[in-house]
Design a protein that fits this description.
By secondary structure, this protein is an all-alpha fold. Helix content is about 75%, strand content about 0%.
Length: about 180
């Protein structure tokens, strides 16, 4: 097994694990961070932490479940630290960034007709926990039990949270699509 090779000194094999999981780790990190730079930093931190803790992986669950647990906790820690560095809404730079984001969204509205793009936009508007559960279930194709192990929850709790996250996602999609229809008319 690849993990055993790495633990037995073939550390160059770790790049194979990274290649297998980097896209999903980055996607999950992006769901939390909402911007590419922070997501890249979170993903990099996750793979460093996973490498250092690889000896603690018990192999009773899938490696991806273990890695996504690291991703989740790393992202939450990162976001908590980042909240401490928030700037005032009265800050001129913040206003300019908000104005540029809004005008950019309107200019790109016609390009976002693809349902997948609307779905991703709606997921980015969800709370981080909702986005994580939706992403793990649909994109990660993890079972309720695996998600529960990743997020340290009971499978029934995950099922309820997934149901509620779907409802909130539907509301976000309805809002986005309603605005798209208005723009087309």
């Amino acid at each position: 097994m690849l993990i055993e090779k790495i633990l037995n000194g073939q550390t160059d094999q770790y790049s194979l694990l990274v290649k297998r999981h980097q896209r999903f780790v980055f996607t999950l990190a992006l769901r939390f961070a909402k911007n590419r730079e922070d997501a890249e930093e979170i993903a990099q931190d996750c793979f460093i932490k996973a490498y250092k803790a690889l000896g603690t992986f018990k192999q009773t669950s899938k490696f991806s479940t273990w890695l996504y647990t690291i991703t989740y906790t790393t992202a939450m820690t990162f976001l908590r630290k980042k909240r401490l560095d928030t700037s005032s809404i009265d800050d001129e730079d913040t206003f300019i960034q908000l104005e540029n984001h809004t005008s950019g969204f309107m200019a790109n509205g016609y390009e976002k007709k693809d349902g997948y793009k609307f779905l991703n936009e709606a997921i980015t508007q969800l709370m981080p926990d909702d986005a994580a559960i939706i992403t793990l279930f649909y994109q990660g194709e993890q079972s309720l039990e695996e998600i529960g192990a990743s997020l340290n929850m009971e499978p029934n709790t995950v099922k309820v949270k997934l149901h509620r996250a779907r409802q909130r996602l539907r509301e976000k999609l309805q809002y986005l699509l309603k605005d798209e229809v208005k723009e087309l008319l």
